[in-house]
Amino acid sequence: MSQYGNSDTESPQLLTGGHALRAWTEAGGRAERAPLLWHARLRWHAHWFERFAALSEQRTATQPLPADPLFIVGLWRTGSTLLHTKLSAAIGFSAPLTWQCFRPATFMLERPPKNQSERRPMDQTEVTTLSPQEDEFAALLLGESSLYRAFIDPRRLEELTPLLWAWTLELSGCAAPLSARWESFLKGVIQQRPGTLLVKSPNHTFRLPWLAGRFPSARFLWLSRERDAVATSNRRLWSDMVQRYGLWRIRPAALEMFLNQAFEAHDALIEWARANLRDRVRFLSFEQLVRDPDATVAEVIGELGLVRAGRGA
């Protein structure tokens, strides 16, 4: 699987997607931490990525997009992975898996690989080939405008910061932050495992108004955590992920400015959600979740009227 685990002395792992991600990466210029033949590898992978993506999209053309996914949102490092994993185990959800998210162009065309496990660098949480995963990685490789592009080129965090506030444009219908390619990915996930779609990405927090309109029956679980703890944990997250994938080095001052903007946008969105989503959003605290994950998940299941796996799900 090898999504994580890079040492300081190794070259970064090259994130290879379609033409849009290749073009954005190459626009950064000469890499500071260049893997061997990185330009040629980006172009070769992008060529085949696009060909396979077109075939995959044909297979999902008639698959309807569900109106009622369950989204897990909130800032990074607020417990979303734990909640995602626990809910997926308890309920027969259709959730994107790690191998699907890192192979969004080909997973419809191949069998699942052998299950393997690794530890995430920022917290040593185990991640397996077949565990629920953040669909943001699929969106990134498919060419969507993702904040995770900063994992590749953290020098451009300032360029990406407006994505935190794109939701203000979504309110006037001026922007669609995700394309039909991302929707085709979700359709493929459902085809491989039918059921209620469970989607987790902190980045979706900053797309919330659009998601609420695009999926009119969707519900949202919103995790929160004490600010200083979130800030400290995010410094490690972004630094570790840049160490893993970055072709350039991270600038601590730029990261601090980005995180401050993320907090401001997040807090403004909470106010919007409380006023506009009401019964569609359920707020949860990180402290409650980690204190008793099973009880918290049981509470959520009961409140949302879900059915546990093995009991008719």
Helix content: 40-55%
**CATH hierarchy: architecture:** 3-Layer(aba) Sandwich
Can you identify the CATH superfamily?
P-loop containing nucleotide triphosphate hydrolases
Whole-angstrom Rg? 19 Å
| Protein structure class | alpha/beta
Order of helices and strands: HHEHHEEHHHHEHEHHEHH
Biggest sheet, in brief? 4 strands, parallel
Strand order of the largest sheet: 4-1-5-6
Mean pLDDT over all positions: 93
| Spatial separation of the terminal alpha carbons | 30 Å
State the shape.
globular
Note the beta-strand portion: 5-15%
The DSSP helix count reads: 13
What can you see in these coordinates?
The protein has 313 residues and is of the alpha/beta class. The protein has one domain (19-304): Rossmann fold, CATH 3.40.50. The protein is 46% helix and 8% strand. The chain has 13 helices and 6 strands. Strands 4-1-5-6 form a 4-stranded parallel β-sheet. A two-stranded antiparallel ribbon has the order 2-3. Strand 2 (117-119) and strand 3 (126-128) form a beta hairpin.
Produce a short descriptive summary.
The protein is an alpha/beta fold and 313 residues long.
Descriptive keywords:
313 residues; 4-stranded parallel β-sheet; Rossmann fold; alpha/beta; 6 strands
Q: How are the elements arranged and paired?
A:
Elements (H helix, E strand, L loop, with lengths): L18 H8 L11 H22 L10 E4 L6 H11 L7 H5 L14 E3 L6 E3 L7 H7 L14 H4 L6 H4 L9 H13 L5 E3 L7 H7 L4 E6 L2 H19 L6 H25 L4 E5 H6 L1 H12 L9
Parallel strand pairs: 1-4, 1-5, 5-6
Antiparallel strand pairs: 2-3
Helix pairs in contact: 1-2, 3-13, 10-11
